[in-house]
Amino acid sequence: MTLVHRLTVDGRDYFLPDPVTGLKQQILEAIRAGGGYVNIPPLRGGPGIDILFSPGMPVTWSQIDVGGDLGDRGDDKSAGGADEEFGL
């Protein structure tokens, strides 16, 4: 299982590699200080991007599982047709 973290800042999405614990702490410190720039690392190589975080700015975190095995999913519909599903 590969997790990718999505950071949404003011309506814009940034995809980040694991781990993000240190980054979350930096963002929280910048907001507590009344505002400040935090470098958001890229998902794959490059310098990243500096974002100015300030109190009241909408920030959301979410985790996305990419690369999971479809055979392990509980909603696998391939094992049986509609007739079986409805008892026909």
What would your notes on this structure say?
This protein is α+β, with helices and mostly antiparallel strands and 88 residues long. The chain has a domain at 17-67. The chain is 18% helix and 35% strand. The strands form 2 sheets. A 3-stranded antiparallel sheet has the order 2-1-5, with no helix packed on it. Strands 3-4 form a two-stranded antiparallel ribbon. The longest helix is centred in the N-terminal third of the chain and has 12 residues, at 21-32. The two termini are 37 Å apart.
Short characterization:
With 88 residues, the chain is of the alpha+beta class. Helices cover 18% and strands 35% of the residues.
Describe how the helices and strands are arranged.
Blueprint: E1 2-9, E2 12-16, H1 21-32, E3 36-40, E4 49-53, E5 59-66, H2 82-85
- Unreliable parts: none
Number of strands: 5
Distance between the termini: 37 Å
- Total helical segments: 2
Radius of gyration: 19 Å
> What overall form do the CA principal axes indicate?
globular
State the secondary-structure class. alpha+beta
- Note the beta-strand portion: 35-45%
**What composes the largest sheet?**
3 strands, antiparallel
SSE string, helices as H and strands as E:
EEHEEEH
- The overall pLDDT, averaged over residues, is 81
What fraction, in percent, of the residue positions are helical?
10-25%
Strand order across the largest sheet: 2-1-5
